C-alpha cells in the first residue's frame, strides 16, 4: 500500500513535469527568449527543492524512530553514479532545449517520445528487463508513432526559421531522446549495484547530486555564452513583460524538477521502462496542448502518431494487469492448499 501511494505521487509529479516543462520552455522562446543554455540550466536548476523533501523524510523518520533517527547518506557507488548521470543530464538538457527552441512543441514532444525505443534497448542490455508480448507491442507501436513524424516534418516549420535550423533542432531532439533513453536504465542499474539498501531518501539524494552536477555543467555553458549578463536585458525586452519573464524562469525550474523527481521515483518503485512509457504518453497530451494553446498545426501525421501512442499505452497496461492477475491466480492455490493431516493409529 505504501509503495503504491509512492508510485502514485511520483507518477503525478512526472505527468506535471513532462507536460508543463516543455510548455513553459516553449513559452519562453515564443515571446523573445533566445538563450538555450539558460533554458537547459532551468531544467535542473530547481535542485534546492530536494532539500525540502529530504527534510520531510527525515522528520517523518524522527517521528517514528524518535531522537535515534539518523540522517542517511548515500555510499560511494551511488554518489559516483549520480555524478556521472548529472554530467550526461547536463548535455541532454542542452540538446533538448535546443530542439524546443527550433521546433513547435507538438513536434518536439512527439520526437522526444522516441526515447522509449532506446530505453527498451538499454533496459534489456543493462538491467535485463523482461518483456511480455504486450510490452513489446507497446514499444513497437510507440516507436512507429514517433517514426510517422519523419514524414513531411518540415510542413510545420515556424515562420522565419530556415530549413537548416529546423532540421538541426529535429536531430538535436532525437539525440536528446537517445541520451535520455540511456539515462533511465543507467539509474536503475546504479540502484541495483549500490552496496546498500536503496530507500526513497537515497533516491532523493541521488536526484539532488545529479541535478546539482547537471546545473553546474549548464552553468559553464552559460558563462561561456554570457547568458548570466544577458538576463536583465532579455527580461526588459520580453514579450509578456519583465515580471512575467522571471515568473516563466522560476516556473520552468519548478516544473522541470517535478519531472526529474517523478522519473527517478517511478524508476525506483517500478522500472525505467514504466517511467519511459508514462513520459511517452504524457508527451501526447503536451502535443495537444501545443496545438490548442500555441495554435500549432495538427497535421495528419501527428494524428496518426497520437493514435498509435495511445494504443501502445493501453496495450502495455492491459498486459501488465493481465500478467499480475495470472500471477496471483497461480499463487492463490498454493496459499489456500490445506496443510497435510497426520493421523496416528493406536498400535
Automatic annotation (TrEMBL):
Places the protein is found: Membrane
Residue numbers spanned by region Disordered: 326-347
Keywords in alphabetical order: Membrane, Signal, Transmembrane, Transmembrane helix, Transport
Primary residence: membrane
Biased composition (Basic and acidic residues): 326-337
Signal peptide: 1-20
InterPro entries in the cross-refs: EmrE-like (IPR037185), PUP_plant (IPR030182)
Topology of this chain in the membrane: Multi-pass membrane protein
Cellular component, GO annotation: membrane
SUPFAM superfamilies per UniProt: Multidrug resistance efflux transporter EmrE
Annotated transmembrane regions: 36-59, 71-91, 103-127, 134-154, 166-186, 198-224, 244-266, 273-294, 300-318
MF term (GO), any: purine nucleoside transmembrane transporter activity
The family this protein is said to belong to: Belongs to the purine permeases (TC 2.A.7.14) family.
Protein name: Probable purine permease
Taxonomic lineage from the root: Eukaryota, Viridiplantae, Streptophyta, Embryophyta, Tracheophyta
Amino acid at each position: 500500500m505504501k509503495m503504491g501511494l509512492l508510485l502514485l505521487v511520483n507518477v503525478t509529479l512526472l505527468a506535471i513535469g513532462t507536460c508543463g516543462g516543455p510548455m513553459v520552455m516553449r513559452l519562453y522562446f515564443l515571446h523573445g527568449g533566445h538563450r538555450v543554455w539558460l533554458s537547459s540550466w532551468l531544467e535542473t536548476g530547481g535542485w534546492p527543492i530536494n532539500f525540502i523533501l529530504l527534510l520531510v523524510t527525515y522528520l517523518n523518520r524522527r517521528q517514528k524512530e524518535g531522537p535515534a533517527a539518523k540522517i542517511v547518506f548515500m555510499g560511494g557507488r551511488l554518489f559516483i553514479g549520480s555524478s556521472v548521470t548529472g554530467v550526461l543530464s547536463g548535455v541532454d538538457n542542452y540538446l533538448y532545449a535546443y530542439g524546443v527552441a527550433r521546433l513547435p512543441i507538438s513536434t518536439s514532444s512527439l520526437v522526444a517520445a522516441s526515447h522509449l525505443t532506446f530505453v527498451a534497448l538499454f533496459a534489456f542490455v543493462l538491467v535485463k528487463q523482461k518483456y511480455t508480448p504486450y510490452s513489446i507491442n507497446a514499444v513497437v507501436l510507440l516507436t512507429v508513432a514517433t517514426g510517422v513524424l519523419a514524414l513531411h516534418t518540415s510542413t510545420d516549420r515556424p515562420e522565419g526559421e530556415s530549413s537548416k535550423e529546423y532540421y538541426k533542432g529535429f536531430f538535436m531532439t532525437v539525440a536528446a531522446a537517445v541520451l535520455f533513453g540511456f539515462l533511465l536504465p543507467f539509474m536503475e542499474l546504479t540502484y541495483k549495484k549500490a552496496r546498500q539498501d536503496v530507500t526513497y531518501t537515497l533516491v532523493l539524494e541521488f536526484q539532488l547530486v545529479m541535478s546539482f552536477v547537471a546545473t553546474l555543467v549548464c552553468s559553464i555553458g552559460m558563462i561561456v555564452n554570457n547568458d548570466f549578463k544577458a538576463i536583465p536585458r532579455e527580461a526588459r525586452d520580453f514579450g509578456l513583460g519583465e515580471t512575467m519573464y522571471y515568473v516563466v524562469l522560476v516556473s520552468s525550474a519548478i516544473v522541470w524538477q517535478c519531472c526529474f523527481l517523478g522519473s527517478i521515483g517511478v524508476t525506483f518503485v517500478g522500472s525505467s521502462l514504466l517511467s519511459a512509457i508514462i513520459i511517452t504518453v504524457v508527451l501526447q497530451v503536451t502535443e495537444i496542448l501545443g496545438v490548442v494553446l500555441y495554435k500549432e498545426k495538427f497535421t495528419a501525421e501527428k494524428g496518426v502518431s497520437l493514435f498509435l501512442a495511445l494504443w501502445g499505452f493501453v496495450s502495455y497496461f492491459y498486459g501488465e494487469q493481465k500478467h499480475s492477475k495470472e500471477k496471483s491466480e497461480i499463487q492463490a492455490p498454493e496459499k489456500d492448499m490445506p496443510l497435510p493431516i497426520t493421523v496416528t493409529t493406536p498400535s
